[in-house]
């Protein structure tokens, strides 16, 4: 882990230098962490082989717990919204996620059923590569690989990893294009904010505090004191998750970050009840979460596995093009109509990152326009995750659908998926009309 941390530090240093020097990176507003991650990918064993394989193996374990750290601090450093508002907005977000993921499944299965299955001798569940790789990510691709093997489709696992890798890189690059478009069109909360071209060193001659000391450094370093509070939020969430998983195995389908979000809220409420909530320094907590996010981005990109099988490149390319179009429609058309008006693009770009790669990608894109996650988009996303995570994008429906495709064929399954999407859209539109100001 120490060696991996030193590699990440070196990559971030080089990435920051390139971000400072290269005008193209400044114009596109590419964060230094993404540059560092791409440098790590270039130096990985699958390309140049400069970074040892055991370091990459270590980095693969980082994104999961680092996301949980980010969400642990989200409700710790500021109060949560009223419960009724949170539930209503979470329902709209949950419907949006279902539409995105069911659309990925429907497109993939339809194309496979009509054009791909026969000529290339693949199962109909080949069409789930979009969902498994894009919405599910590398973890779901690995799990679906076992399903494909049971169906006699040995190449499925490697193709799943390939789609997940392409989706993640595409999500980052295209997501930054959409972010820049949104800023120039005034689609963000702040309107047409006109992000200036920054090198990253503009603050070198300015004294800008990054936090306020709540403890005396002679007793305990003030930043470490805030780390302890964030750690407590993480520990509470992890404890609840472990206990609930032991009692109800179904809970294991939920991502850990959902529970660490609640852990932050519990710690904040507990400190409030004890009259010590003033010991939380919001700015320091944001800096700690920002640190976790930077490390997460570098580790997630640098640890990508590019050793994929290209034997079925053409049909996979067809699926990828269809997926690229669909996620763009969800962001720019459907999301604009179903998501809260005040921050539809912030929540939409978070969904975009999720639906093309990982939650980490979505959070990275969100933080470009919502640095401190103040829009409410991340909170909606986390609260809505239980409505979708156990079922789609690597949940029960994902792994049961291949059986349904074998039993009923493509026609009935596609018809059912389309009907479900239409009903979800109607319900989401009704919720949006009943609450037009949000």
Key words describing this protein structure:
single chain; 438 residues; mainly alpha; 18 helices; 70% helix
Can you put this structure into words, describing what you see?
The protein has 438 residues and is mainly α. 70% of the residues lie in helices and 0% in strands. The protein is built from 18 helices and no strands. The mean pLDDT is 85.
Residue fraction in strands: under 5%
Distance between the amino and carboxyl termini: 44 Å
Helix-strand makeup class? mainly alpha
- Percent helix among the residues? 55-70%
Taking Cα atoms only, what radius of gyration do you get, to the nearest Å?
22 Å
Number of strands: 0
The main β sheet shows up as:
none
Helix segment count? 18
Sequence stretches where pLDDT stays below 50 over 5 or more residues? none
Mean pLDDT: 85
Shape descriptor reads globular
Oligomer type: single chain
Secondary-structure element string: HHHHHHHHHHHHHHHHHH
